[in-house]
Fold this protein.
Amino acid sequence: MTKSETVIRILATSDLHGKMVPWSYAVDQEDTHGSMAQLSEALRAYRTEQTVYIDAGDLIQDNSAELFLNDPVHPMVQALNRCGCDIWVTGNHEYNFGIDAVRKTIADLDALTLTGNVYLPDGSPLAPGYTIIERGGIRIAVIGMVSHNIKRWDEQMLSDCDVTDMLEETRKVINSLQGGYDVLIGVYHAGISNECSVPNTGVTDICNACPEFDLVISSHEHIRIPEMHINNVLVVQNAAYAATMSVIDLSFERKDDAWKLCGRKAGSVDVGDYPCDPEILELLRPYHERARKDAAIVIGELRKGPLAEMPEVNGVPRTLLEDTALIDLINRVQMHYSQADISATPLCSHLDAFFPEGPIRKCDTSRMYRFPNMLYKVLMTGKQLRKHMEYCARFYNTFRPGDLTVSFNPEFKRFHYNIYSGVNYEINISKEPGERIEHLTWPDGTPVKDTDRIHAAVNYYCANSALLHYGGVFQEGEELPVLEEADIRSDLGGVRELIGDYIRNVKQGILTPQKNGNWKLTGISWNPSAHETAVRLLNNGTLTLQCAECGSINSRSIREEDLPADSYTNDRRVSDGNS
């Protein structure tokens, strides 16, 4: 390469979520799909003399990372420092633990933190909104922001802070730079699309409004996107838990005494393909041992059956298709500690989580409930309850004649779907969204009236993203539910810790599966023989589920025409049950 040509390499990660070494503490098992120890070797393999390593946040939450929040320096921070991170942007989960925890993380990192849309109580910015660094004479401008939905999701933690619109802050920065750079990069802890119907919380809006960007690093959705283009802006995103690393090469040529970007090429690397860096393994060994020891503490025993049945179709949890003891346990815990009338929870366990009879370890509560959500109580009317339930029912694709499995709307995030206890109801998925909730009654069979005043237990994410603010469920001008109590029993912790306390102290260490049977899917009518054939062919690998980009659950139903000819009997009995 001549002196008139040069290449800048950008290495990018995000959503590392406490994955220190190749181990999942939630299940206390080895998991070699990615880790900080392996990432170190991947970075070493791809670094050049002109490399910038950028991470887009969600560093100190999940995979037992919360154990180390009060350590002098968090092990994930130590590992990121050892990996030579140049620029870091805060993620939404950093704010779960309060602004002081965020500020400590920033202070302990060697990387420059960018977060240009969070302002402290005194009006000063939490971190700069941009920086300009040089590699080989190339001026690289980097802008960093976090989704302004954090003010909704962590309202209590950010009550004294101001969180501004990402796009508005971005335009201010770009306008102030006045082209004083050779390449412009945006780093956003935000997904591709807007969340909670809030404008400018996805990078699509950013790219459409800011064509000046050459590269945008997206995050938050945990989707592996090696390369895509939005309004001619190159966009990348990584899977979670250090599973992937983006590699972007930006080519420049010298023209008229100035560097001009002349090429952009991006790809994605599987971090799990790399061995562990022995130095980082040794650095993290004491924390790994602490996390494993903590995970193995026995807190009780499950008797008389599992909390969640094995799926009929591999990869499609029964929990999303029928009432299960697992969801009923979570809702029972939330109602116990909040003294609410009803409770709602999303499926917060891993999709493949199975809870058989036997000892219950502390790590099993993390498998039941992955996230550090606090418990809230809100006051709502029967009308507001029905509206939220209809919103949640959008999670299912409409059942069509010829379908042989239930499928799920890829545009509706699973963690927005809540399952209720304390009321009885049916979800008729043969009807279009907005008309699916039927036979909504109290346990004694009395219909839930629009005017009923209902105390509901929900996690803080559901409260702040769906119930207490406009956008998504309720629109401007509609009456909103009212927050009655936030951070219920915060002396014990969040919902996950409440589950552990419930098992230990309320159930005296003995847990048995209990199903309410209070809800079911209806509107399903398929040929039973064809359905059984589809299940068999899916489970033996002959047929494959079509999943959303994140690869979580199927977004398209298997249909009769997908089956081999003459593979089932022409039995036209009607089944109104579950996949």
Summary: Residues 94 and 102 are 6 Å apart (CA to CA). The radius of gyration is 25 Å.
